[in-house]
Every structure is written in C-alpha cells, then in structure tokens.
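Entries read sequence, tokenised fold; example below:

***
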Amino acid sequence: MASLKFVIRLVVAWLAAWCVLLVALNAIGWGERLLPWVFTLWFVGLLVALARGATHLYRVRVLAGRIDGETVSNRQRRRVEVPYPADEAFAIVEAVVRELPNVRDVGSTRGGLQVRAEIPPDLPQKQQRGRLSRLYSIVVRSTKVVATVTPGDGSSSVMYVCEPDGGAWIDWFNPDGGASLEYVETLVRATTQRLAERRNRERDDVRQSKMEKELTAAQLGLLQAQVEPHFLYNTLASAQELVRTDPARADRMLGHLIAYLRRSLPRTDGSLSTLGEELERSTAWLEIMQLRMGERLAIHVDVPAHPQNVPMPSMMLQTLVENAIKHGLEPKPGGGGVWIRAGVDGARLSLTVADDGLGFRSDGAGTGIGLKNLRERLRLMYGSAATFSIGNNFPNGVAATITLPVTGVADHA
C-alpha cells in the first residue's frame, strides 16, 4: 500500500505540474506554439521520475526490509543515545561523519555541538565530465547531512538528519533513490559500532587492571606469608649461639624476631598498613641485622610521631631497607649506616631510605624485581598520585624516596 501511495503521489504531482504549465502557456499565448515541446519534456520528466521512483522503492526495500511512510521518505531522521558526555559524543559523531563515502565540505562547530556535511551524487565514470554530468547533477541531488549533539546528565543524544539538497517541494517530483535512508542508516551503524568498540576497550581495560591488581595482591600475599628462609635460619642460629655466650643479647634478638614476624603476617582483609606499623617491622629487622653485624651497622631513624598513622602499602619500606643492607652495606668492608626519614608536606607523605654503602654497582648485583614490583604496586594503587625515585646519595651510597598522598588509595577500578 505504501508503494502504491508513493507512485500515485508522484504521478499526481506531475499531472498537477502539467496543468499549471497549460494554464501558464495559455495565459501568455504560447500554448499552440510550445505545447508539443513542453509536453515532450514533461513526458520525459515523468518517465524519469517514475524510473527513479521504482529505483527508490527497490533500494528502500533492500536497505530497510520494508516499505512504509517512514522509510519511503526522502528526508530521514534518526536519534542515537550515547552514554558519554557531550564533548566525547561530539568527537565520535564528527569522526563518523568524516568517514562517510564521498563526503565533502565537512564543517563542525564544537561550541554548537553540530556537524554539517554534503555528499555529492556518485557519478558514473563515463559521466564525470561534460553536459551529462551537469544533467545528472540536476536529476540526482546532493545529500545534506546534519548531526546535532544534545547534552544530558552524563550522557548525550545525537540526532542525524539526512535529506536531499533543495526545497521539500522537489521531493514530490524527484525521489532521491533511497540515498538519504542509506546514509542515515550508515551513520547509525557506524556510531553504534564505535560505541561498542569503546565499551569493549573500557571492559578490557577494567579487566586488565583487575587482573594486575589481583596478581600484585597475590605476589604481596606470597611475600608477606613467607619470611626469607636464610634470614630466619641465620637469625635462629645466631640466637642459639648467643644463648650460650650472651643470653641478654640473644633475648633481644629473639624479641626483635618476634616483633618482625608479628608484623609480617599477611593481611587477610586486604587493608592498608600504616607508616608506624611498617616502621616497627623494618626497625625490628634492622635491630636483628645490627646484632648480627655488630658495629658494622649504624641505624638512624628520623620519623616524627604525627605521620605514623598515615596509611601506606605494606612491605614497601621493608623492600627499601633490605636493598640498602644487602646491596649497599653488607658487601662493604667496614659496613656503614642506614637512615630512615619521613615527613608530611601538605597532603603528601615523603619517605626516604638512604645508606652510605657501595652505591650503584656495575657487577649487576641484585635482580631489580623488588623495586619493579614496588613501582607497579604504586601505579595500581595510587596512579599518578604517588612517585618513587632512586639515586646516588652524597657522598656515598643510594637514596630511595617514596611519595604518597595522605588521603588514601586512588580509585582506579
């Protein structure tokens, strides 16, 4: 029924035009002289219009799968909901419009959230020059594309309008061959595809971030759950020997070992530790090492009381302290000192571990895995809000500094 109404409307429009032409010719007295030529042109125009009407109906059925008042129209409108703010939606819409085939004269107004473009008729190769080209451009009109973004509360709405160039009254005489329907459907599909690709990327990013956090948490749990066997064996062996020769010193060593092991138990709830708790663990470990190394190790702790309640990830301070001893002071003849300093400046905690040991060594001592894990944990937990730096200490040794926000962990899930 819609197809029949479309054809009848087309024929009625041309018949009405013929009646107007007859009245006009008779009014100026040229009816008898020009009537045959005007009728010929009118009849040819009617045949062309009917042919284009048949093409229009065929393409509409192929594109939409149905023929009704909405699909058969020369002027098409589609609305697409975009779950992103207006500026992001505008970027998507502009990219989609620019990718239309044969598009030209693309103009965008970011302030007005609107994109306009024109798509000229796709001329056959043989008709791209000469009079046939001009005649073809008259019969087959260009398509105007207008895309407007309407901002909402955290989301946006996009209205695509595709219509033939020229007044709406021309539609009664010259169908556009389904071009507007084809372009508007292309815009909707392209926008939907881009939104799906973006959502997939976001899901992949969230999944990757979650996997990285779970892996880091598993690594941390493993690190907390196991005390280095050599350290434990050596400490117990030293305590056993001191029991016979220096019971008081052995008692201090076992006390420090108990304190260290208590702080090394893994946190089952995944919560953060505090600077004070981490300082107790590292201090206990250093006291054990001092009892073993004797005068070769000097410990200097400069941490005020007020920043000790600041939350921080566990085992980070311990990693820096162990690096200072194992790679800087233990291999150095005569040993040296290790310094732990902390302070709060505004909303940031600065924690530094320094030593006057051998410094960065060219023999490749150490694997760097501990510092690599430390950097990755900071990135996953704080993003760009936390930093880690390591460099030469003056005049000898290495200084490593962690800077954390005192407000807690950033939300990157």
Q: What stands out?
A: Confidence is low (pLDDT under 50) at residues 125-130, 409-413.
